Please model this.
Amino acid sequence: MLLAEEGGSKIVEALHELNVQTIVSIPKVGPFDFSITNAVIYLWVGAAIVFGLFYWAAKRAKKEPDGLQTLAEILIGFATGHLCGQLGEKGRKYYYLILTIFAYIMVTNLIGLIPKPEVLKPYTPTANINVTFSMAIVVFIVTHYLGFKNHRGGYLKEFMTPPGVPKALAGPLNIIFIPVELMGAVFKPLSLSVRLFANTIAGHLIILVMLGLLLEFAGAIILPAGIFVVIMNAFEVFVAFIQAYIFALLSTVYIETAIYGSH
Model:
């Protein structure tokens, strides 16, 4: 019984890494809390890394690129070629939005996989639904802004019955189509945010639970559990890339649909 309680305490200690901790407390303004937490700090760190990478690569651009410039050029080529190739000339200005989303999610995912001492209050930003939903809301706003900008009133027809439906049926069917299409528009950012959040937190939960077991039963299971943690960390690096890629790719699809229309 005591052993189980101690084992549970070690796992709880490991899972403490998923807790939001206040660093600088700021009084609330109504329902809004502007306190600086470890989640905010690591979001700033991720933003600084992404900005620093592209800023210094651009500032030090050479005909014979060094490692930093090569990495930046690979990311830009990946975004403009593979991720955003279908956006065409109308969507060219949004290449860098997609690149920023991809790079930022990738960096913040990887930040959570780097072992850190407790004094740094470790945290994985993308394991917070508020963070992933905020990024999805940006895509949502850009998507519908572009829809109205490029199609004006015609964009509203995207939420109605498709072309070719007889007028006698179009009116009654719109009672069904409009709410369904509106729900689909709302659920797009929700699906983006929940997918990223769920996959990130699931992987971290497994790793942290295994680390808790390692701390408690080091003598008995250190080898198999240690190997498992190493394998899971390697797999999580792959998942970090895949989740950033899926989020950026779906964002591209939504923006493309808004620019060119879905019909």
